[in-house]
């Protein structure tokens, strides 16, 4: 349904005959330019994060990716310098091309949300161009679907936290994040560990339980408040969640969520953000920060992620939604009392979209919302576990089991996450860095005694491909670990197929008797095809994968012994 541009009629100046039959609202026009500049700033931050996660320099990325990378960089810069429909369209198209090339394995939760938002923005801008309307109307027309995507992200994040491991203070990732943050704060304040121990472990256990329940209740309250129209408390809680998320490797995801918050308020309220976007000092400052982040990344592969995280925290404070949530509905510099009864262009655009129930923007919005629902429900359907908006949730659905308290395992009608293998050793870089623990009990100083006495796991499990740079003092790459078999195939293909290099991978495959009809499995052009039979049905198998290029045979130790026996008898290789 069409959203009112303000609680009272829009009093902004309207220029009759300026692009549409109803006129053009200058407040909506400037709000669109402010959003374009904010989005360009976030895209520059995302670009710096992309370089850190791929372990490449800016020159290497520009050389290997081609003209698409240059277009992405230049369009993001132009969105900051000259924010208009042309620059944001170029930034959206280049980002869509880059994200499409990275699907499915190299896109994180922020990339999936960014992809769906870009599709809606592109549909709205294309609709305004085809109908001869101003770009601000197309931007406003994409607002309902982007608001729905925003709510769905928080809904599925809260849903994923309804599991047993999240509410276990010894395993919860939220507890690990809380302990690391509190430990760093107490260390800065020079609070000795004996002060923490003096309160007693029971007090801290109660505090952690209250923290877990408070985060869960607040997470469920965000989409409910937004869907009920209580925007101020809903966005306030949402910003608190994004600020906490900024302390992890997903800080760019936090900036993406905050950058879409202006869609929840009337366009003229967004004008209070002019000081950080359209003002000349703000543009110069944004370019200076971009140069400070991308300059060191020009020739070096490390040392930039920490600066990008600090820049993201500063940006989150600057783009706090409270100023424009509490802003007045009118704009003093553009107010014209005689035009108070007219509707603004944003409201007219959304009314036009709502009038044609099967219009272009409406159809694209429905498809993206359906894709968002499918992406959030993918872990419970057995489709995938990555980029499903379940960050810091402790959700486990691999191997045909689940720790969720409401959704049972039989809902996993697809088997992509059911067949899992344990990687024991490999020389493939992607497999070596697939499982990472950031932090840990040994890295705590003030709360270390409490964590050791109560067996609290103070490390956050993630992947080095997503957290980028991993200094030795912050985390460790560990092995063995368990991943779905389809993910193993993707990682091997992504790492070795283009290079045609020889590699090996030690795998411990746990198969149930109902899933396999033999003791051995092989990987001729398709890992995971069960073959053979015998008394070892369902027994854990150890396989070695000496694959070459596109993949040779994968033989178990039993097959190797059989082959050696034939060779000794003169029968030749089997």
Question: Would you summarize the structure shown here?
Answer:
It is built from 22 helices and twelve strands.
Your description of this structure?
With 574 residues, the chain is α+β, with helices and mostly antiparallel strands. The protein has 22 helices and 12 strands. The chain has helices spanning 26-54, 58-65, 67-81, 85-102, 109-130, 135-141, 143-160, 173-188, 193-199, 201-227, 231-245, 251-259, 280-294, 305-318, 322-325, 345-355, 360-381, 429-432, 448-453, 464-467, 485-496, 557-568, and strands spanning 14-15, 24-25, 420-426, 436-439, 459-462, 475-477, 481-484, 505-509, 520-522, 529-531, 541-544, 555-556. Strands 7-3-8-11-12 form a 5-stranded antiparallel sheet. Helix 1 packs across helix 3 and helix 12 packs parallel to helix 14.
């Amino acid at each position: 349904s069409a959203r009112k541009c303000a609680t009272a009629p829009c009093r902004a100046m309207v220029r009759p005959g300026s692009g549409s039959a109803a006129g053009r609202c200058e407040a909506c026009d400037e709000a669109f330019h402010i959003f374009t500049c904010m989005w360009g700033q976030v895209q520059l931050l995302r670009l710096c994060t992309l370089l850190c996660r791929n372990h490449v320099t800016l020159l290497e990325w520009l050389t290997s990716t081609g003209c698409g990378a240059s277009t992405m960089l230049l369009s993001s810069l132009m969105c900051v310098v000259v924010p208009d429909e042309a620059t944001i369209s170029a930034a959206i198209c280049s980002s869509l091309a880059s994200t499409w090339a990275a699907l499915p394995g190299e896109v994180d939760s922020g990339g999936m949300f960014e992809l769906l938002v870009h599709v809606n923005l592109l549909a709205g801008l294309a609709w305004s161009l085809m109908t001869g309307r101003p770009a601000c109307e197309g931007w406003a027309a994409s607002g309902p679907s982007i608001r729905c995507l925003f709510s769905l992200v928080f809904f599925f994040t809260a849903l994923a936290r309804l599991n047993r491991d999240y509410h276990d203070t010894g395993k919860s990732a939220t507890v690990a994040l809380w302990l690391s943050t509190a430990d760093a704060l107490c260390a800065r304040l020079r609070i000795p560990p004996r002060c923490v121990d003096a309160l007693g472990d029971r007090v801290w256990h109660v505090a952690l339980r209250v923290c877990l329940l408070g985060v869960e209740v607040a997470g469920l309250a965000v989409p409910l408040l937004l869907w009920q129209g209580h925007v101020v408390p809903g966005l306030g809680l949402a910003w608190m969640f994004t600020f906490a998320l900024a302390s992890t490797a997903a800080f760019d995801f936090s900036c993406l969520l905050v950058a879409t918050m202006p869609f929840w308020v009337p366009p003229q309220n967004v004008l209070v953000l002019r000081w950080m976007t359209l003002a000349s000092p703000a543009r110069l400052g944004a370019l200076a920060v971009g140069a400070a982040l991308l300059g060191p990344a020009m020739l070096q592969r490390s040392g930039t992620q920490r600066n990008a995280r600090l820049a993201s925290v500063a940006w989150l404070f600057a783009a706090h939604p409270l100023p424009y949530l509490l802003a007045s509905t009118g704009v003093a510099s553009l107010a014209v009392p005689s035009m108070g009864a007219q509707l603004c262009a944003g409201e007219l655009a959304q009314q036009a979209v709502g009038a044609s129930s099967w219009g272009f923007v409406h159809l694209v919005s429905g498809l993206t919302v359906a894709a968002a629902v499918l992406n959030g429900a993918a872990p419970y359907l057995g489709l995938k576990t990555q980029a499903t908006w379940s960050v810091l949730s402790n959700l486990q659905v691999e191997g045909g089991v689940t720790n969720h308290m409401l959704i049972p395992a039989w809902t996993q009608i697809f088997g992509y996450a059911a067949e899992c293998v344990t990687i024991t050793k490999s020389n493939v870089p992607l497999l070596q860095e697939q499982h990472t623990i950031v932090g840990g009990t040994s890295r705590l100083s003030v709360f270390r005694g409490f964590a050791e006495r109560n067996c609290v796991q103070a490390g956050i499990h993630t992947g080095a491909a997503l957290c980028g740079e991993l200094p030795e003092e912050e985390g460790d790459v560990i092995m063995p670990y368990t991943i779905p078999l389809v993910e193993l195939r993707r990682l091997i293909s992504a790492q070795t197929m283009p290079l045609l290099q020889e590699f090996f991978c030690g795998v411990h495959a746990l198969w149930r008797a109902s899933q396999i009809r033999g003791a051995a499995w092989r990987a001729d052009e398709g890992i995971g095809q069960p073959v053979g039979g015998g008394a070892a049905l369902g027994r854990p198998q150890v396989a070695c994968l000496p694959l070459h290029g596109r993949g040779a045979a994968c033989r178990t130790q039993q097959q190797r012994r059989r082959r050696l026996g034939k060779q000794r008898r003169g029968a030749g290789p089997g």
